[in-house]
Structures are given as C-alpha cells and as structure tokens.
Design brief:
By secondary structure, the protein is an alpha/beta fold. It has 13 helices and 13 strands. The strands form 4 sheets. A 7-stranded parallel beta sheet has the order 3-2-1-4-5-6-11, with helices on both faces. It is globular, with a radius of gyration of 19 Å. The structure holds nicotinamide-adenine-dinucleotide (NAD).
C-alpha cells in the first residue's frame, strides 16, 4: 500500500505518519509538504532514512507537485495540508482560501484523474461554529465564523460536492482541539508551556471561559487512520477527546505543571474578534465504528508538559525570527 499524506511536516500530520509507519508495516508513505512556517523537517528527522518514507517538497495547489508526489500511483490520499491558525487567518485570510479550498480542489481533481481509491479530508470541529449547548453531529449545518473555519468549511463542502457529483471516494474527519508533542508554539498549549518554562506571562483572551474539547494528537491520528480504513465512503466522522475545558482551566493546569502562579504569570488580553465561545462534538458515529480515545486527559497534559521541557532544542529555534514578529503583531497592542 502506498499513501500520499499532505502537510505531513506539521503537527498532526507528522504524528500520523509516525503512527502509521510504526503500526502498519505494509504501508509506504509519500509526504507532500510546502514547508510553510508551520512545516518543520525536524518533526520527522528520525524517519529520514526509513525506506518506507519519502518526502516531496511542494504545494497542494500546484498540479505538477501533486502529480510528482503521486508518481506511479497511490492507494489513498490523506490531506492534512492547511493554514491552521485562527489568529493568523484574522490577520491575513488569503493564504487560507488558497490552501484550504483551492488546494483541496487540486487534490480532488487528482483523485478523479488518477482513479485513487480513497481520499480523506482532515477537517475540524470549528466548521460547526459556536455551539451554545449540546453537541454538534456530522449532519448539523456548518456555521463557521472565522476566516480559518470558513475556508475549512469551504473545503468540506467541495469534498462532499465531489461525492454527489462525480462519486469521488471521499471521507471527512472533523477533529476537536488537539494537543501533544510537535505542535507549533503559536497554539494555546505549546505557547503557554514554552512561555512558562521561560518565566514569561501567558496572554489569556478575554475572560478565558471559552470551552474546547481537547484531544490527544495520537488519539486524533488513530481516529483518522480508523476512518481511512473502516469509514463508509461519502461520510463525515467527528473525532473528539471528550475533555471539555475552559481556556482558564487549561491555563491553571499548565501553571501548576510548570510551577508558576496565576497572579504573576497570567495577563488577560483583549479577546479575539468573533471568538467562538464553545465547541462540542458528538462522537457516537466514530465510536460505533470501533474507535475510542485512549489517552486520559490528565496523563496527556502532564506528558505534554514534560515533552516540551525535554525538547527545548525543538521549539527554541521556532520561537525566533518570524514567530517573534507575529507574536508582537498579535499581542503587543492587546
Ligand atoms: N491542530 C488542531 O487542533 C486541529 C484540530 C482539528 C483539525 N485540524 C486540522 O488538521 C490538519 C493539520 O493541522 P495541524 O495542526 O497539524 O497544522 P500545522 O499548521 O501544524 O501543519 C500544517 C502543515 O501543512 C503544510 N502546508 C500548509 N500549506 C500547504 C500547502 N499549500 N501545500 C502543502 N503543504 C502545506 C505546512 O507546511 C505544515 O507542515 C489541518 O487541516 C487542520 O485544519 C487541526
């Protein structure tokens, strides 16, 4: 079996590739990644000499790059490639439309042209928008409210349109907020942990009472793998951790884990515009297919803090240059 994974130098893609190579000895992987600021070769350095792994540098929006990654053919495409940070989508939405919608389109065309047997679109629970109460199910209407979630929803709808129109063999997963090793330090958990390790304050948006459902990255990766192998074509599957927490609760856990105090290390800053208060997904459909998250939240968070402590050489180079400019642009005026 040969699978094309896109965006595999990012957070979830790199964890997915490692899980697949470890647990599926009959699978070979080609990883097509544009190496944006979020694509980090260090995430998969340990696989560089693995004969079942090949890296291709290129953009999913570039037909030629996609063709050369597919080469003689692949059995499946798993699309992780995306612009993924809500705050950056507010500063500069265009790249999101290009990759998350047009890039998805180029991949779908390749699936059609080359007769590829399965295409899995990695999506997000953010496409459902703000959920005041209850849980989002897969056939709920999409009400995205940020340029990021709107472009992801555009990608999802295009994928489903290809199913209805051309009978393209597609699947979609909608994962919840993911945490764990190798996450770029702009996102809440790695940003806060690395700031706290460095004895810096952490910027909490607004009152910090926004609720997210936290999912360990290995559980997310296994959820995607499970859908790829067992899902029904044309269907959407939510992947959630079942760990709803406010941002303030997460902050408290991280402060405790890093031995810092709320009074000295928390700075409440002006909230993100249009900030969704709550996401919550119903995962009964994927449970019925035989998937369940394995990592208990307290263990996962503790292990994640330890991982960032022990991998300063991974994240320190990332918190320089472009990151510092972004951080200033994002937080200095708040
Ligand atoms: N992180 C989360 O909490 C979360 C939750 C649910 C769903 N998702 C989805 O999972 C996927 C992966 O998210 P992540 O957090 O690992 O993202 P990430 O930002 O860490 O990585 C994205 C990767 O995609 C690559 N990429 C970006 N544009 C590209 C392009 N045009 N062509 C080829 N490669 C490109 C980047 O270089 C990077 O390696 C995304 O589709 C995201 O929407 C993320």
């Amino acid at each position: 079996m040969r699978w094309l994974v896109t965006g595999g130098l990012g957070f979830i893609g790199s964890n997915f590739i490692r899980v697949v190579l470890r647990e599926r000895p009959d699978v070979r992987i080609v990883n097509l990644d544009a190496m944006t600021y979020a694509g980090n070769p260090a995430n998969l350095r340990d696989l560089e000499d693995n004969p079942r792994y090949r890296f291709v540098h290129g953009d999913i929006g570039d037909v030629n790059a996609v063709e050369s990654a597919i080469g003689d053919g692949v059995d499946a495409i798993v699309n992780f490639a995306a612009e993924t940070h809500v705050d950056r989508s507010i500063l500069d939405p265009e790249a999101f439309l290009r990759t998350d919608i047009l890039g998805t389109h180029v991949l779908l065309e390749a699936v059609r042209r080359r007769g590829i047997a399965r295409y899995l679109q990695v999506s997000t629970d953010e496409v459902y928008g703000d959920v005041e109460r209850g849980e989002s199910s897969e056939d709920d209407p999409l009400r995205p409210r940020s340029p990021y979630s709107a472009s992801k929803a555009g990608g999802d709808l295009h994928v489903l349109a290809y199913r209805s129109t051309y009978d393209t063999p597609v699947l979609i997963t909608r994962g919840s907020n993911t945490y764990g090793p190798y996450q770029y330090p702009e996102k809440l958990i790695p940003l806060f942990v690395t700031n706290l390790i460095d004895d810096q304050q952490v910027p909490v948006y607004g009152d910090g009472l926004q609720i997210r459902d936290w999912l360990h990255v290995e559980d997310h990766a296994r959820g995607i793998l499970h859908v790829l192998e067992h899902g029904t074509l044309g269907e959407v599957y939510n992947v959630g951790g079942g760990n709803p927490r406010t941002n303030l609760e997460i902050t408290r856990l991280l402060l405790e884990g890093c031995g810092r105090s709320h009074d000295t290390h928390v700075r409440h800053v002006v909230d993100r515009p249009g900030h969704d208060r709550r996401y919550a997904v119903n995962t009964a459909k994927l449970s019925a297919l035989g998937w369940a998250p394995r990592v208990p939240f307290a263990d996962g968070i503790a292990a994640t803090i330890v991982w960032y402590r022990e991998h300063e050489s991974w994240w320190r180079p990332l918190k320089s240059g472009e990151f510092l400019e972004y951080y200033k642009r994002q937080y200095a005026h708040r």
